[in-house]
Amino acid sequence: AGAVRAPWVEPPARCVCYGLGRFSACPAARSQLAFLLLLLEELGVPPGRCSLFDPAFSGEEEAVLGELGLRLLPENEEGKHSLGGSATLFYMVHCGKALYNNLLWRNWSLEALPKMVIIGNSFKGIEERLLPRILKRDYSYIAKVLPGTEEAALPAHPRYLDTFNDTSIHWFPLQKLQELPPEVWDFVEEPTYEDCDDLEIIRKGDGAEGHSLAAPES
């Protein structure tokens, strides 16, 4: 919690969680849900200000989340969630690269990015695993924001290595963003992923029954 609390300029007002998965059947997803609830408590974010979406949720799981006081997003946003001016924690453990890219695109401004913190797959790890031309072509907003990103690996715990492997806390200090070339803010075309072979997300309108927004764990 201390590692997640450190980056904030102002305390988070709300939280958005994507890709939690089938926590009724998956122990790793249950641990991720438990950690989310602890984080909300530590950060002082009421459960009613935490919204979740995963097309894999069953009706029973949705009812459990409601009992916990959490909110369900009414539709698949494909990660394109606008901050709306509020400091927001995005909890996206093991999600597909396109979800992070879509989220960055939706909030691509010097005003919005400093107000968000992302807990999810290491951006540095994404950069290391992809060829530079693929990163720039398919996930251009991740590529462009990397020089303006601060990243800290989530502290490892031997019991939860598989649950939170490759997970980092990402934030975007205004000073670092202002050092980026001015032209990076000029091109804000919505991502399409026409040439992407491993999209790793369920698109709005796809047959999403039994699938998750999260990427398969390696």
From TrEMBL:
GO cellular component terms, semicolon-separated: cytoplasm; nucleus
Protein family (similarity comment): Belongs to the SRR1 family.
Species, as recorded: Brachypteracias leptosomus
Residue span, SRR1-like domain: 11-171
PANTHER family membership: SRR1-LIKE PROTEIN
Protein name, UniProt field: SRR1L protein
